[in-house]
Structures are given as structure tokens and as C-alpha cells.
UniProtKB/TrEMBL annotation:
Its biological purpose: May be involved in recombinational repair of damaged DNA.
Name of this chain's protein: DNA repair protein RecN
A biological-process GO annotation: DNA recombination
Organism: Caloramator mitchellensis
Gene3D superfamilies in the record: P-loop containing nucleotide triphosphate hydrolases
Keywords: ATP-binding, Coiled coil, DNA damage, DNA repair, Nucleotide-binding
Molecular-function GO terms, alphabetical: ATP binding
Coiled-coil ranges per UniProt: 279-306, 331-365
One Gene Ontology term, aspect cellular component: bacterial nucleoid
Gene name of the record: recN
Key word Nucleus present: no
Domain RecF/RecN/SMC N-terminal, first and last residues per copy: 2-508
Similarity comment: family membership: Belongs to the RecN family.
Length: 566
């Protein structure tokens, strides 16, 4: 249930704070006062896409916040899945700035607008004037019927949808394989060549790096040899003069002779001996390396050829050996898939036939339930239409079978209507007037409301095209619905307004040369004044006030009778 609504900088609204009650909340006001703006703000709050032009002139942002009481366990479960605390109350807010930035929050946690939409369908059902047109769209008829079919039906429908999605996927795979069949041989030739080319190379991870290193050594072998030989000679075997090795040995011998004079010299001598032995080790390594260095043209040729092959494969199949190997694995799998396509196609066809059999059974179950429910729904809507002043009207929910399986089953649902005796039942768009459409929609909403778990229903001028006794019937029906749901209703009819449990007046005023829309919760005297205006127009007289008081008295008695009956 919607407890509070806070609006800032939305269209003509500067700042509005509303608290709604259980039962029937009525919104009235003169034409152009901004009644639709209030409904638009709720739509915005619940995730509807709205342009930046709703931001009030000279303001940088618009902000709408709603406080809801939550009783639905399903909604609490969804909120838990979204990581939102499932409290008894939930605060939803949405802000939009001039640069188009949207920020939505649920209980203070930032969420996406899509999340708002997901949650909103469990909170509020808004019926606006545009829904009259939706009734003319036969695609909506099946959804309305299904909403009345019960929980067990919806379990079957979910299983059907799951099977249908799988069937569509399998069908797409079958068609893909059939198309690939035409190109299979050509594709296999290309893949076979690539597989053989890569496989014959017998690539090893990192071998290109190792080969490049070896190639570098061979190309520079003469320089390496000369440098190593020179270093060796300098350290150990000079042609003229003493080598470093000899000089260090001589220094050790000389230090040995004077250690008896100062023990610190012994430490120095020992450190020099360590250098001597280390140098001896280095000299040995240099000698061994020098003796191994040789230029091998044959080996260099082999390496060059190998690197050329690897680079050629890199240009074709990947920037690294690892990428080439990964590509190889991929095309081997692809080749295998194409090679086995006949077998795979056969398996897919078998699976398709199995799914088709399963979905046909599910579709038959859905059709049976829809036809059973259609008869009940037709009778219920006819009954409601009689209550709404259409005593002779006939309404039929026709269910016929389609030739092909659809995502919703194998049924076509069409609403047929006749307003007068002797008239043939025909499609709504052929026979129903605006006033009749309003009553048909209200009748449908009334019937579905009996099983609908959505706590809040909003009716935006559902009374279009009706007056007199019919208007009174609609008012009473609104009151009946409000005993099981919170109802917010925008109306221009005094009969409906007088049935309110809480009445709000929407009006425009000019402040500092700016037009703003205000919403006022009416007390009993203000309610009399507003209903008198609705009865008599702009001129409110004592007579219209007395009429308004009488309407409120009658409405009070009617509400008590409805309450007792429910």
C-alpha cells in the first residue's frame, strides 16, 4: 500500500507531500489543474521512461519518493535477492537531473531503473485512459484471460515457456547446421590444411625465445670468442707481464710474510685469498666457455629456417606460439563438430521431436484451462456490466486454436461484445463506444481484483464518457474494489468523489509570477465545496452545496452497507 508520496520540481509541482489512506483515495480538480501530473510522477517513481522536460522550469532536478507498506512474501523474496532489507516498509526514490542522470534507490540502496520496474508490478497497477486503447489490441486479451486462470495454470505456463525457449534454440541450431552443410566440405578443406600446417610444425611453448637466444650467440660467436679469450688472458695467461691471477698470488705471499707483525694483516690476507679462489673459479669458467665457442653455419641455418616457419605461422594464426596452439585446439574442435554434424543434426532432430511432443501436451492443458476459465470470465464480466448499467450487454471471451505453436501457447483469445439484444457479438474495436470501453475495463478490473494480489490500484479518469445512474454504479463499484485494495482514483464525477475515504484537490496557483500545482487534503467542509463545484461548475451556490451534502450522506450509507456486505 502507498502510504506517502513526496514530489519535488516535477512539471508544475514545486513541492507536494501526500499521505494516503486505505480504501478509496480520490483526486479531483478542474481541467488543466495537473491531475495527470500526479499520476505521471508515480509512473516516474516506478521506473517509467520520462523525458527531462518534466523537470520544473529553472530547476536542476526532479525528485519523487514513495513510502510503501509491504505484505507480499513474493516481493520480500525478490528484495532479498536484490540485497535489500525486506522490512515491513519500503522507501523508493528516483531523481533525474537536467543532464539526464537517473538515480534510483530502494531503502537507501542504489538500484537500476529496471529493478524499479521489476518491483513496481508487485506494488501498483495503474489504469489510465490509454488502457482503453489497449483493450482494442487483441494481443492483450490473452494476458487478461491468463491472469484469471489461477496459480496451477501459471506453473504450467512457466514450464511451457521454458520448453518453448529450448525448442526455439534447438530449431535455430538445426537451421544453422543445415546451412553449414552446404559449406561443410569447403570449410573442412581449409581447416584440414590449417590443422596439418600447425601440427607438422610441432611447436613448443617458448621455443621461439630459446631459438632467438641461440641465434644471437651464433651470429656473434667470433666477438664472443675474442672477448672471452682476451678476458682469460688478462686474468691468467698474459703474453707479456704478470696476469691478475699471478699478481694476486704474489700479494698473498708478501702479506703472509708480515702477518707476524700485525694480526689485522692476517684478515686482509684471508680476504684476498677468497678473491684468489673466486678468480680461479671464474678463470676456469672462462676457459671452458672459450673452448666451447665455435661458429656453426649449419646450426644457424636450421635455426633461421625454424624461426622463419614460426614467424610465418604467427602471421597467420596468432602473435605468440601460445595463441597459435589455442587456435589449433579451436579449429580441431570445429573440424570435429563439422565432421560429426550429421550425427549432431540427427540428435538435435530427435530432441526437437521430443520437445515438440512435450510442448503440445502443455499447450493442450493450457487450452483446456483457458476455455474453462473463459466461460467463467465471460459470465463474471457480463454480471459486472449489468451492475454498471449495461443490463442487456453480452460479453464473450472466445478461445480458438492457432495452427502454429507460439510463445504463449496455441490459443488466440478475442473479446467479443454486444451492447444490445439481437446484436451479433463482435470485436470490441467494431462496436464499443468510449463510455462502454470505460465500463468494460472497470468490469475486467473488478473481476481480476478479486484474485489480484497487487495492493494498490490507480484509476486515471476511468469514468470517461459516463454520467447519471451509470456514474453512481461505477462509484459503488470503486468502493467495493477499495475494500480489498487501496484505490487512487482521478475523477471528474461527483458521484465517485463522494464515495472517497480520503479526498485530495489538485489546483493551480500563481506565485511570484510562476504557475505551480498544489494538492490539498480536504476536510469535510472543503469536500462539500469541491463536490458542489463538480456538480454545479464554477458557480457554487447554497443549492449545490446542499446537493453535495446529500450526496456525501448517501455515499456514507452506501459505504457502510458495502462494508457490512464484505
Amino acid at each position: 500500500m502507498l502510504l506517502e508520496l513526496h514530489i519535488k520540481n516535477f512539471a508544475l509541482i514545486d513541492a507536494v507531500d501526500l499521505d494516503f489512506s486505505e480504501g478509496l483515495n480520490i483526486l479531483t480538480g478542474e481541467t488543466g489543474a495537473g491531475k495527470s501530473i500526479l499520476i505521471d510522477s508515480i509512473n516516474f517513481l516506478l521506473g517509467e521512461k520520462i523525458g527531462k522536460d518534466v523537470i520544473r522550469k529553472s530547476c536542476d532536478f526532479t525528485f519523487v519518493e514513495g513510502v510503501f507498506e509491504i505484505k507480499s512474501e513474493q516481493l520480500k523474496s525478490i528484495m532479498q535477492d536484490l540485497g535489500i532489507d525486506d522490512d515491513e516498509y519500503v522507501v523508493i526514490s528516483r531523481e533525474m537531473t537536467k543532464n539526464g542522470k537517473n538515480v534510483a534507490r530502494i531503502n537507501g540502496k542504489t538500484v537500476t531503473v529496471n529493478m524499479l520496474r521489476k518491483i513496481s508490478k508487485f506494488l501498483i497497477d495503474i489504469h489510465g485512459q490509454h488502457e482503453h486503447q489497449s483493450l482494442l489490441d487483441e494481443n492483450t486479451h490473452l494476458d487478461i484471460l491468463d491472469a484469471f486462470c489461477g496459480e496451477e495454470f501459471h506453473k504450467i505456463k512457466m514450464e511451457y515457456k521454458k520448453t518453448y525457449d529450448e525448442l526455439v534454440y534447438i530449431d535455430e541450431k538445426i537451421n544453422e547446421l543445415k546451412k553449414e552443410e552446404q559449406l561443410k566440405l569447403q570449410k573442412m578443406d581449409i581447416l584440414s590444411f590449417q590443422i596439418n600446417e600447425i601440427a607438422s610444425a610441432q611447436l613448443k611453448l617458448g621455443e621461439d625465445e630459446e631459438l632467438s637466444k641461440r641465434r644471437n650467440i651464433l651470429i656473434n660467436s667470433e666477438k664472443i670468442y675474442n672477448t672471452i679469450a682476451s678476458s682469460y688472458a688478462q686474468l691468467y695467461q698474459r703474453e707479456e707481464g704478470s696476469s691478475a691471477y699471478d699478481e694476486i698470488a704474489m700479494s698473498i705471499s708478501q702479506l703472509e710474510n708480515i702477518t707476524k707483525y700485525d694480526e689485522n694483516i692476517l684478515n686482509i690476507k684471508n680476504e684476498l685469498e677468497e678473491i684468489y679462489y673466486k678468480l680461479e673459479d671464474i678463470i676456469s669458467k672462462l676457459r671452458n666457455y672459450r673452448d666451447k665457442v665455435e661458429f656453426n653455419q649449419e646450426e644457424l641455418n636450421v635455426i633461421e629456417e625454424r624461426l622463419d616457419l614460426i614467424n610465418k605461422l604467427k602471421r597467420k594464426y596468432g602473435n605468440t606460439i601460445e595463441e597459435i596452439i589455442n587456435y589449433y585446439d579451436k579449429i580441431v574442435e570445429e573440424y570435429s563438430t563439422i565432421e560429426k554434424s550429421e550425427e549432431i543434426l540427427d540428435e538435435l532432430n530427435k530432441k526437437y521431436d521430443k520437445l515438440l511432443s512435450e510442448i503440445t501436451i502443455l499447450a493442450d492443458k493450457m487450452s483446456l484451462k483457458r476455455k474453462e476459465t473463459a466461460a467463467k470470465l465471460s459470465a463474471s464480466i457480463e454480471n459486472e456490466l449489468r451492475y454498471l448499467g449495461m443490463e442487456k450487454a453480452k460479453f464473450n471471451v472466445e478461445v480458438s486454436q492457432l495452427e502454429k505453436i507460439q510463445s504463449s501457447g496455441m490459443d488466440k483469445v478475442v473479446f467479443l461484445f454486444s451492447a444490445n439484444p439481437g446484436e451479433q457479438l463482435r470485436k470490441l474495436n467494431k462496436v464499443a463506444s468510449g463510455g462502454e470501453m470505460s465500463r468494460i475495463m472497470l468490469a475486467i478490473k473488478t473481476v481480476i481484483a478479486e484474485i489480484d494480489k497487487i495492493p494498490t490500484l490507480i484509476f486515471d479518469e476511468i469514468d470517461t464518457g459516463i454520467s447519471g445512474r451509470t456514474a453512481q454504479s461505477v462509484a459503488e463499484k470503486m468502493s467495493v474494489i477499495s475494500k480489498g485494495h487501496q484505490v487512487l482514483c482521478v475523477t471528474h464525477l461527483p458521484q465517485i468523489a463522494s464515495m472517497s475515504d480520503r479526498h485530495f484537490k489538485i489546483h493551480k496557483m500563481v506565485y511570484n509570477e510562476n504557475t505551480i500545482t498544489k494538492v490539498t487534503k480536504l476536510n469535510i467542509d472543503e469536500q462539500v465545496e469541491e463536490i458542489a463545484r463538480m456538480v454545479g461548475g464554477a458557480l457554487v451556490t447554497e443549492l449545490t452545496k446542499e446537493h453535495a451534502k446529500e450526496m456525501l450522506t448517501i455515499a456514507f450509507e452506501l459505504k457502510n452497507r458495502i462494508k457490512a456486505a464484505n
